[in-house]
Amino acid sequence: MSTITLDARSLPRTPWHGHAEESELGHWSAVARTVAEALAVDALARDKANAEPFSEVGLLRDSGLLNLLVPTEFGGGGGHWESAFAAVRIIATADGSIAQLLAYHYANQASIAFYADPANQGAWFARSAADGWLWGDSVNPVDPDLHLVAEGDGYRLNGLKRFSTGSSVGDVIVINAAVTGGKNDGKVLAFVLERTREGLELLGDWDHLGQRLSASGSVKYHDVFVAPQDVLGEVTAEPIATLLTPGLQLAFGNFYLGIAEGALSAGRAILLERKNSWFLSSADTYAQDPVFQRILGELKARTAAVGALAEKLNRRFDTEVGRAGDLDEAQRGDIAVAIAELKVVATEAALEVANRIYEVTGSSSTKNDVGLDLFWRNVRTHSLHDPVDYKKIEVGTYFLHGTNAPLSLYT
């Protein structure tokens, strides 16, 4: 009998398949709720302190959430993307910054599956799981490209990247850069460096209106040596590899949704505690006044509609990822547009909820120690990541002509 040897390159590019069962979703959602409850206790105080969120990362690590997507055979939780997106949404109800950290971590860690040769994926996943790595990134495409120059069997990296989420607290940072010289000249490589690598400078310059604990400062590289073993693989236009960006956009939709739900919950609690009522009202309390009930009902209904769309797409994303190397351009393009639709409505719903919640909580809720503004500041800050109007154009163009936006780290 002849022996058949499989070429590792012909194996699936992604290790995920099937869908999350109710028991899995229930488990990880319960874990996320426990973390969210802990974060909610001092969310405003931590936001004001604006310190690097090492303790918050420790909370995520201890909970097991960082390894949710790592296959069980490599020491991870063996979960699906649907469970990961649900966890991000739940964490965002308490702390949008930490939800962003977790969302980017999942995408960055998943670079293993989208870029690395299947023969090498197991070792990367196992190392990440064993050491509980939080994955940051340094791939902001609006900055000039980094300079990655071939040197011997490795490379030298120089340059600056702003908006490097998770970089200042991540155990490792995933970076993309085009190669100059050598056998890989012109190729864009994805590679992974530890935060403490010699020549890697964390500038600590993230000090923005919201998402203050997302560890999104700039990173500067001074002749950093990149060894062959640091390289995940080439960044290509292969449909399954390019699915990583829609996945991150889907995570955005989920944490915008979570922020809206958090604002609604906080507003409800404040309204129920309000005494008396408006002097023109016939109700005994503000919470019994139809005016305030109507506002909350409108905001709650819109948020629920966005939630239904998110849940549908979270489950569908597992279907598309499960196609692995068989995912084609049409399938990739169709889900990217569907996710863009969520990005549009999640952005607008979260901004509206975080803004209008004050209409039911009253002027006393604008006191700085109440902290209701944290929800608006967080969603207002991150929703500017890429212009939502371009997402509307992306959706409209596809609806009219069936054409997709050019591939990029935003589409």
Automatic annotation (TrEMBL):
Q: Name one GO biological process term.
A: L-leucine catabolic process
Alphabetical keyword list? Oxidoreductase
InterPro entries (alphabetical): Acyl-CoA_DH_C, Acyl-CoA_Oxase/DH_mid-dom_sf, AcylCo_DH-like_C, AcylCoA_DH/ox_N, AcylCoA_DH/ox_N_sf, AcylCoA_DH/oxidase_NM_dom_sf
- Acyl-CoA dehydrogenase/oxidase N-terminal domain segment(s): 30-128
Q: Which domain of life does the UniProt lineage start with?
A: Bacteria
Entry-linked Pfam families: Acyl-CoA_dh_2, Acyl-CoA_dh_N
Q: Please state every residue range assigned to the domain named Acyl-CoA dehydrogenase C-terminal.
A: 251-386
Q: Name one GO molecular function term.
A: 3-methylbutanoyl-CoA dehydrogenase activity
Q: What is this protein called?
A: Acyl-CoA dehydrogenase
Q: Which organism is it from?
A: Paeniglutamicibacter gangotriensis Lz1y
